[in-house]
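Is this the right way to post C-alpha coordinates for a design question? Let me know if I should format differently. Anyway, here goes:
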Protein backbone atom coordinates (compact mmCIF):
# COMPACT_ATOMS: atom_id res chain seq x y z
CA UNK A 1 0.00 0.00 0.00
CA UNK A 2 1.54 3.40 -0.99
CA UNK A 3 2.27 5.87 1.76
CA UNK A 4 0.35 9.13 1.75
CA UNK A 5 3.23 11.56 1.38
CA UNK A 6 2.53 15.23 1.58
CA UNK A 7 4.32 17.42 -0.91
CA UNK A 8 6.93 19.80 0.47
CA UNK A 9 5.88 23.40 0.94
CA UNK A 10 7.89 25.65 -1.38
CA UNK A 11 6.58 29.05 -0.26
CA UNK A 12 4.57 30.54 2.59
CA UNK A 13 2.80 33.15 0.48
CA UNK A 14 0.67 31.08 -1.87
CA UNK A 15 -2.52 31.00 0.12
CA UNK A 16 -2.27 34.73 0.90
CA UNK A 17 -1.74 35.52 -2.80
CA UNK A 18 -4.86 33.52 -3.65
CA UNK A 19 -6.84 35.21 -0.87
CA UNK A 20 -5.97 38.71 -2.10
CA UNK A 21 -6.55 37.77 -5.75
CA UNK A 22 -9.99 36.35 -4.97
CA UNK A 23 -10.89 39.39 -2.83
CA UNK A 24 -10.28 41.49 -5.93
CA UNK A 25 -12.62 39.24 -7.91
CA UNK A 26 -9.85 38.16 -10.27
CA UNK A 27 -9.58 34.74 -11.83
CA UNK A 28 -6.14 33.19 -12.16
CA UNK A 29 -6.27 34.07 -15.86
CA UNK A 30 -6.94 37.72 -14.95
CA UNK A 31 -3.95 37.84 -12.62
CA UNK A 32 -1.68 36.07 -15.11
CA UNK A 33 -2.62 38.61 -17.76
CA UNK A 34 -1.80 41.47 -15.38
CA UNK A 35 1.53 39.86 -14.42
CA UNK A 36 2.39 39.41 -18.10
CA UNK A 37 1.77 43.12 -18.65
CA UNK A 38 4.35 43.74 -15.90
CA UNK A 39 6.87 41.75 -17.96
CA UNK A 40 6.71 38.33 -16.31
CA UNK A 41 6.21 35.56 -18.87
CA UNK A 42 4.01 33.42 -16.60
CA UNK A 43 1.41 30.77 -17.37
CA UNK A 44 -1.69 30.02 -15.31
CA UNK A 45 -0.26 26.64 -14.28
CA UNK A 46 2.66 28.43 -12.64
CA UNK A 47 0.31 30.67 -10.65
CA UNK A 48 -1.63 27.57 -9.60
CA UNK A 49 1.55 25.95 -8.28
CA UNK A 50 2.48 29.14 -6.41
CA UNK A 51 -0.97 29.40 -4.83
CA UNK A 52 -0.83 25.73 -3.84
CA UNK A 53 2.61 26.43 -2.32
CA UNK A 54 4.27 23.91 -4.63
CA UNK A 55 6.61 26.35 -6.37
CA UNK A 56 9.21 28.76 -5.04
CA UNK A 57 8.78 32.46 -5.71
CA UNK A 58 11.85 34.49 -6.69
CA UNK A 59 12.45 38.04 -5.52
CA UNK A 60 11.67 39.40 -9.00
CA UNK A 61 8.39 37.47 -9.08
CA UNK A 62 7.50 38.62 -5.58
CA UNK A 63 7.92 42.25 -6.62
CA UNK A 64 5.70 41.69 -9.67
CA UNK A 65 3.06 39.98 -7.51
CA UNK A 66 2.97 42.75 -4.89
CA UNK A 67 2.78 45.47 -7.56
CA UNK A 68 0.05 43.62 -9.44
CA UNK A 69 -2.02 43.00 -6.31
CA UNK A 70 -1.41 46.56 -5.10
CA UNK A 71 -0.08 45.47 -1.71
CA UNK A 72 3.18 45.95 0.13
CA UNK A 73 5.46 43.08 0.95
CA UNK A 74 4.52 43.52 4.61
CA UNK A 75 0.82 43.22 3.77
CA UNK A 76 1.53 40.05 1.84
CA UNK A 77 3.78 38.51 4.49
CA UNK A 78 2.59 39.63 7.89
CA UNK A 79 -1.16 39.12 8.22
CA UNK A 80 -1.27 35.39 7.58
CA UNK A 81 2.34 34.23 7.81
CA UNK A 82 2.52 30.94 9.70
CA UNK A 83 5.42 30.06 11.91
CA UNK A 84 8.19 29.32 9.40
CA UNK A 85 9.58 26.61 11.65
CA UNK A 86 6.45 24.55 10.96
CA UNK A 87 7.66 24.01 7.37
CA UNK A 88 10.82 22.19 8.36
CA UNK A 89 10.95 18.67 9.72
CA UNK A 90 12.68 18.13 13.02
Amino acid sequence: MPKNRSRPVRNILGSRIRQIREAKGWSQADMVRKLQLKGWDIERTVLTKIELRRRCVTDYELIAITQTLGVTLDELLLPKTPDVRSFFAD
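Format looks fine. Someone answered above. Worth noting: The domain at 14-78 is CATH 1.10.260.40 (434 Repressor (Amino-terminal Domain)). The chain is about 50% helix and 0% strand.
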